[in-house]
Design a protein that fits this description.
With 147 residues, the chain is of the alpha+beta class. It has one domain (3-108): Double Stranded RNA Binding Domain (2-Layer Sandwich), CATH 3.30.160.20. 41% of the residues lie in helices and 18% in strands. The chain contains five helices and five strands, in the order H-E-E-E-H-E-H-E-H-H. It has helices spanning 3-6, 42-46, 65-75, 89-108, 121-141, and strands spanning 16-19, 22-24, 29-34, 50-56, 78-83. The strands form two sheets. A three-stranded antiparallel β-sheet has the order 3-4-5. Strands 1-2 form a two-stranded antiparallel ribbon. The longest helix is centred in the C-terminal third of the chain and has 21 residues, at 121-141. It is elongated, with a radius of gyration of 26 Å.
């Protein structure tokens, strides 16, 4: 990516920047508008300001096979982001595209491998002390023994 491209907004016409070198062309993102719900008075009744951006994972030619499998496993075959926060359709479009980008980035993130560790001596002692307290509490609830 050149320095000139780095200064472009995330949803520039060249594509939707996800992470690292991955940029999805906007041609692969479907953007639909509809009337927004909620307050807004007469303005809400005539303006299609709600924006829904969706990305078809299976139809994408940009994702590698490994990336496609990861996204399918985590979020399914279609990633959708909706924005109806603002009165402006243009601003809601920006919000929807950035939310879509965030969801895809989260789905593509490779989780760190957990390093196995042993419980500390103090945590083992706390666990056993809690068990002893629970035993005593339950013993106190028993009816008295008749001798």
């Amino acid at each position: 990516m050149s320095e000139a491209e780095a200064d472009l907004p995330r949803d520039h016409p060249r594509g939707l920047h996800i992470a690292g070198e991955l940029t999805i062309p906007l041609a692969e993102v479907t953007v639909r508008t509809s009337r927004s719900s909620g307050p807004g008075g007469q303005h809400a009744n005539v303006t299609a300001s709600r924006v829904e951006a969706s990305f078809d994972v299976l139809a994408s030619s940009t994702l590698s096979e490994e990336q496609r499998e990861r996204v399918l496993a985590r979020v399914g075959p279609r990633v959708v982001a909706v924005a109806q926060d603002e009165r402006s359709q243009a601003r809601n479009r920006e919000l929807a595209l950035s939310r879509l980008s965030e969801r895809l980035a989260a789905a593509l993130a490779v989780p760190k491998r957990r390093r196995a560790t042993r419980p500390t001596a103090a945590s083992r002692e706390r666990r056993l002390a809690d068990k002893r307290r629970a035993t005593e509490r339950k013993r106190g609830r028993r009816p008295p023994e008749d001798s």
